[in-house]
């Protein structure tokens, strides 16, 4: 069996343990200093957190978070649909289709999402395209993420055994029907953890809607709270950060759950030695 890396020896493990302890200690010290500074400026006082006892404030933050989720859901559905089509173009046997698709994919993967958002909200209206800020945000998210999803789906298709497509063709399926009914469902199912992880990235990207000004998402809601309760501006941003973290952690947990299901479904297990994960190989049934 080919190993991806060497097994870590006892001396290296001790050195790693020392570095880990030192890193955790540094984080504790920095956290203590930050808390002390915040307490010295009254940021942890009851007065600074008093506005968060009002239900209306939480309703505003909840509506902002819901707007983030709505934009992320719309962007994910559109980028998944267009990403699959772009992946089919990347897999096309004809160079006239495959090369333009590769150029399109690499271009949109290289352009920052913020720049795409500025383009959709500032340039497109100059050419007569009038949309709401929600759709400007969704369009930028779709264009950026469809390129990433296209490469994910393409990798999933190429990772399948050739026998899948050859078997479908032997049964009389056309290449398009084999791709639609046999190859793509398996590829998308196998790459579902990566797709969910991309949803986490997409959800975090919705925070860039703050630059639009007209779309009240979570960061904009926290800013409104900070403008109304000036004494609690930092606290509002802290609450927004925690809400973002909770949603992203839930999605990351879903990705790990899907990955474990894929391992069980296809009979995969991890070979480990000396506490180091080495490789994932098919489980052997005796």
UniProtKB/TrEMBL annotation:
Pfam families xref list: BPD_transp_1 (PF00528)
UniProt KW Nucleus keyword: no
The ABC transmembrane type-1 domain, residue ranges: 65-255
Transmembrane segments annotated in the record for this chain: 21-40, 71-91, 111-128, 134-153, 195-216, 236-258
Location of the protein in the cell: Cell membrane
Bilayer topology: Multi-pass membrane protein
Keywords tagged on the record: Cell membrane, Membrane, Transmembrane, Transmembrane helix, Transport
Primary localization: membrane
InterPro entries: AA_ABC_transptr_permease_3TM, ArtM/GltK/GlnP/TcyL/YhdX-like, MetI-like, MetI-like_sf
Keyword Nucleotide-binding carried by entry: no
Family assignment from sequence similarity: Belongs to the binding-protein-dependent transport system permease family.
NCBIfam families noted in UniProt: HEQRo_perm_3TM
Protein name: Amino acid ABC transporter permease
Gene source species: Dactylosporangium darangshiense
Record lineage: Bacteria, Bacillati, Actinomycetota, Actinomycetes, Micromonosporales
